[in-house]
Design goal:
Helix content is 25%, strand content 35%. The protein is α+β, with helices and mostly antiparallel strands.
Length: 179
């Protein structure tokens, strides 16, 4: 039996680990967790969404990132959202800190974390206007929209009206080609 010491990593240690590792890790409370691969449908949803968001984001001076871009949500927690939109200057060469939109595509292995842990962290970001959870198996999901009194949960219908980047997307276009 092999013993391994486990202690929280600093930001610098985590970023060095990520640079040297062939596997991506999210950092939660200073502890790195290897990320699993995604299904083809998951990847297709992300790709479709990035393609739909890109023109809206560009027109509004924002950037769209997918799956391999880090988001720092606290001193000891970094995630790799499936999609995020950021407006304004880049925070750091290796990560962003102020998205206006974060999207996670749900899968059986990540759904609980996306609905609880990540929801809690993301909704605390001052820049965030919306957190979108998309179903991975069928068209649908939930949008958490920022309002003056906090975030409001909205079930997705045929159209998705985004506050940032401002625009409307058709759910059928997000899920185009998904089995």
């Amino acid at each position: 039996m092999t013993e391994r010491s486990l202690r929280p990593l600093t930001e610098e240690e985590y970023l060095a680990l990520e640079e040297a590792s062939p596997v991506r890790h999210e950092l939660v409370g200073g502890i790195p967790y290897a990320m699993a691969g995604a299904s083809l449908d998951h990847n297709l949803i992300v790709t479709n969404l990035v393609a739909l968001l890109k023109p809206l984001a560009r027109a509004q001076g924002c950037r769209v990132y997918s799956e391999t871009a880090r988001l720092k949500v606290s001193e000891d927690t970094f995630y790799y959202p499936d999609v995020m939109v950021v407006c304004g200057p880049k925070a750091h060469p290796l990560y962003e800190t102020a998205p206006c939109l974060v999207v996670e595509v749900l899968s059986p292995g990540t759904e609980a974390q996306d609905r609880r842990e990540k929801l809690s962290h993301y909704l605390r970001l001052p820049s965030l206007q919306a957190y979108l959870l998309l179903e991975g198996a069928r068209p649908g999901g939930v949008l958490y929209r920022k309002t003056p009194s906090g975030f409001r949960e909205e079930r997705l219908e045929e159209l998705l009206i985004l506050p940032c980047p401002e625009g409307t997307l058709k759910l059928e276009e997000i899920y185009e080609g998904v089995a």
